[in-house]
Write a sequence for this structure.
């Protein structure tokens, strides 16, 4: 059963534009929602994460918006740069029910055009 | 400092052979996770350890897959009687503790079963 749905599958944005990637989840026991960034040939690396007790978290050009009632969260990349071109994965975890394991979305391949 | 390392980086084997994939976590990290990542998909949880204890093996596809971490450091994922459907990228991640959310991923082992 797919527990985290991610969209879009791919995204093309012009340099300086805003990239938006969305995720929806089903399990209301999830208590931690990270976004991972993966460059070709590399392992995923944590980019930014949020817990459900806040609606937004910002770190530099990256912002997570979280809507608990809708069971959705999104990643916004402001002033997108060619160096942001990578695959982005949202994920979720339920520490109480499932321990530390992360449930990942399918990924979004972002391409930022110069 | 050194990150998570995995070996071999690439493994080509014939169907029916056994393979052993190794993960060396970041020094001092208590929790160690194994994921499998198909091309174009997000990582899928297989199993995880706290110290040497296997906490959750619910993601292992069948009894041909096993994992161990006998001294609470290096871990080995073993696949017996490999099948073509086992071909994938196998990733290891570690975290300081289960409650410490950030998981650091290794570069992965690309397994190809002919």
């Amino acid at each position: 059963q797919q527990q985290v749905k991610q969209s879009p599958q791919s995204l093309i944005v012009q340099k300086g534009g805003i990239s938006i990637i969305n995720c929806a989840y089903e399990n209301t026991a999830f208590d931690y929602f990270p976004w991972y960034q993966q460059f070709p040939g590399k392992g995923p690396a944590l980019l930014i994460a949020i817990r459900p007790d806040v609606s937004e978290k910002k770190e530099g050009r990256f912002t997570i918006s979280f809507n608990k009632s809708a069971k959705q969260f999104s990643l916004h990349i402001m002033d997108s740069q060619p160096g942001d071109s990578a695959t982005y994965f949202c994920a979720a975890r339920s520490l109480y029910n499932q321990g530390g394991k992360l449930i990942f979305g399918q990924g979004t391949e972002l391409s930022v055009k110069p | 400092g050194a990150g998570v390392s995995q070996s071999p980086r690439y493994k080509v084997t014939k169907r029916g052979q056994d393979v052993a994939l190794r993960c060396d976590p970041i020094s001092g990290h208590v929790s160690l996770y194994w994921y499998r990542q198909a091309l174009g998909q997000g990582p899928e949880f297989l199993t995880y350890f706290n110290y040497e204890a296997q906490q959750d093996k619910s993601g292992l596809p069948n009894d041909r897959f096993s994992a161990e971490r006998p001294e609470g450091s290096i871990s080995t994922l073993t696949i017996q009687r490999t099948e073509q459907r086992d071909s994938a990228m196998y990733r290891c991640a570690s975290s300081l503790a289960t409650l410490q959310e950030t998981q650091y991923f290794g570069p992965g082992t690309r397994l190809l079963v002919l």
Notes: The longest strand of chain B covers residues 88-95.
